[in-house]
## 1
Amino acid sequence: MIFEDGTRYGKILRLHDYGGGDIVEIVPEGKGQKASVLVPFTKEMVPTVDMTQGHIVIDLPEDFFEVPKRESTEKSEDESQMSADH
């Protein structure tokens, strides 16, 4: 797997098909990551599959590796009051 600029990213471990669209499981090379990465196998994320050159190009959004912030599970005062009223 390489990025569009030619930078090597990793190797394909598996291609998963759970019925909702294929997912490519990639093992990053030398990135300090121990876990594999799952990438949707769509034209947007994987624009090129070049079997003759033996590589697949990935084009991931800038925020692909960002972990979304969790919303607080604490209830606001208004929500607590509404629960107490019922």
Note: Residues 2-70 form a domain with the SH3 type barrels. fold (CATH 2.30.30.240).
## 2
Amino acid sequence: MTPGARLDARQPSANVAEALAVVTAAHPDRAALVGPDGRTRCTFAELAERATSIASSLVRRGLCPGGRVALLVRDPEDALIVAVAALWAGGTVVVPPRSGGW
């Protein structure tokens, strides 16, 4: 599902990616990510733009529906955006256990 799609996020069938698309369509200029200092790091529209670009790249690189995307990102903001992108592309997010590197 892409941003702007219609869905009642309160329905039990709504998944995280679909619910985020609904919120993005309804409130594009609201803060989606806020840093520890309380400052907005990313609006819903910015998150959607970045996640859509990454989702397209994942599909071009061969991600198929249900395919796994390993989340190996250090920055929490980037991790969330990549996770959303993977879900919007139809993939499944895999978070490997920490192994001292992060």
Note: The chain is about 40% helix and 15% strand.
## 3
Amino acid sequence: MEYTMSKGLTHRTRDFMKSVLEQVQGLEGIDSGALSMLEYNYDVFIRQSDILKDEDMVITNVQGNLNPNPRIKIIKDAQIQCLSILKEFGLTLKSRTSVKAKTKDSEDSPLEEFIKGKKETR
């Protein structure tokens, strides 16, 4: 499947999406929606994080009370969406480790090899 990134993305988002596309195997047309959501949410995460660096984490509302900067929730929501999609594609550390462990477990144990008649070579 050929995936075309949206226009207007940050360079960091483009680089990230290129890495994602290099890592994911067997993409089909149906996956383009999830990739678009990942691209959008990651770009929101990057843009809002960059803006928040220049702002305070806490703002004063009209009553004079301190409240968290609303960008924090936007960043958090985008991060949650990104991680959810990355898990679906098997691109988090935990999901990659789980896949490797399942692959390793699928090999025959020495007992299974003996029962199946495989000879051990030394």
Note: Residues 58 and 69 are 5 Å apart (CA to CA).
## 4
Amino acid sequence: MDVEKTIEFLLDEQAKMFAGMEELRVRMDESHERQKQINVSLAQAVLSLTGSMEKLAIAQAESEKSLAALAAEQTAAHTKIDTRLEALAALNAEGAGRMNALIAVVDGLVRRTQQ
């Protein structure tokens, strides 16, 4: 066994291993940089989405207030219409009663003249 060749072989293998480790370190650094960029992009997207969600929540709250006000106005309008319809029904009933009384008077006059 040749000791020099064995040492040379071991040194070559060790050099290859160190070269491989250096390449792996460079790739890891590149991967780490890409991951940092992705994290920054994701953080920006989350911030943007959070802002949009806050705006949406505000808009929804305003819509709910508007709908509540509209519902209150509509309820008041329905109440007013119901009151007016009741008054109209009462006037109609009164008018019908007067009409019946007038018909009775006219009918009585017509019958008297026919007799």
Note: The radius of gyration is 48 Å.
